[in-house]
């Protein structure tokens, strides 16, 4: 995975914006103002993704490159390492799942704006 591929994918998702609200190193992807992914652009070692609480522990046990969310609520977020242990296809699938979880939590009117 590289930064450009991740950015291209995230920005294809409806209502997605990117920014640096936590400083120049942390790129944050949001949907309608709500965070669904964070990545350190300097180190580019991992990404934080929202995860269904029912799947959090299973993913951590199954994949060595999945850890509790760094600086995030460990019940809802995972940190996924870019160490080659997670295929890009799966990483992008989890990114989409993170986006979908955030969209699901948006008010109905906001979700309707996404189409």
UniProtKB/TrEMBL annotation:
It comes from the Bacteria. SUPFAM superfamilies: YjbR-like. Coiled coil: none annotated. It holds the Pfam family YjbR. Keywords: DNA-binding. GO terms for molecular function: DNA binding. PANTHER family: CYTOPLASMIC PROTEIN, CYTOPLASMIC PROTEIN-RELATED. This is MmcQ/YjbR family DNA-binding protein. It comes from Chitinophaga pollutisoli.
């Amino acid at each position: 995975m590289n930064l450009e591929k991740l950015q291209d994918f995230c920005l294809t998702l409806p209502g997605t914006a990117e920014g640096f609200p936590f400083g120049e190193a942390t790129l944050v992807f949001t949907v309608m103002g709500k965070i669904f992914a964070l990545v350190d652009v300097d180190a580019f070692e991992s990404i934080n993704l929202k995860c269904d609480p029912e799947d959090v522990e299973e993913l951590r046990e199954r994949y060595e490159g999945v850890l509790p969310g760094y600086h995030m609520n460990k019940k809802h977020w995972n940190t996924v390492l870019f160490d080659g242990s997670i295929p890009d296809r799966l990483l992008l699938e989890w990114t989409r799942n993170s986006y979908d979880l955030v969209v699901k939590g948006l008010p109905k009117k906001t979700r309707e704006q996404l189409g």
